[in-house]
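Researcher: Hi, I'm a grad student and pretty new to this. My advisor asked me to get structures for two proteins we've been looking at. I'm not sure of the right format, so I'll just paste the first sequence and hope you can take it from there.
Model: That works fine. Here's the first sequence with its structure tokens right after it:
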Amino acid sequence: MTLGTVVRMWRGQTLPENADAYHRHVTETVFPALTRIAGHEGAFVLRRETEGRVEFLVVTLWQSMDAVRSFAGADAERAVIEPAARAVLVELDDFVRHYRVVHEQRLGHAV
């Protein structure tokens, strides 16, 4: 990640019994497809258990908003959610948030 990188964040929840299916869909289908889009720089999946559900925060990294639009289309603030994901999610945001990296600090070791 570099200064100026665009961070795209989206949130959804599923039931515990569907959490692994959602995780597999994102990491085995969505993320590999993103690697073929010019300007995509990486992605993270964050997970937490909460009140009988599993919440995911999906974070993707982009070189620019133009790169984001090449993935999301003209309405870049609208979430892109495939039918396979919708099938296992019980709550989801129809929107995303974009942030620009203005400062970065790393400890220099792999996570």
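Researcher: Oh nice, that was easy. Here's the second one.
Model: And its structure:
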Amino acid sequence: MPGGTPPAALEENVEAIKAWERESLLSRSMAEQIADWIAGTGAGGFVLVLHALWFGLWVSANTG
């Protein structure tokens, strides 16, 4: 396989995993989809920076 194409069995396995994952994602409930959105948004860089600024301001206001 180094420098060449992967064996056919490997390609078949990769495609089977992709199909399984696609099916799994499409069969999630609305609550699971919302929970994924909340987790993804909450873990984003913008939200983390916003929280750091907010807590920094809060600590400054309460110590000064």
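Researcher: Is there anything I should tell my advisor about the second?
Model: You could mention this: The helical segments are 8-26, 30-42, 45-63.
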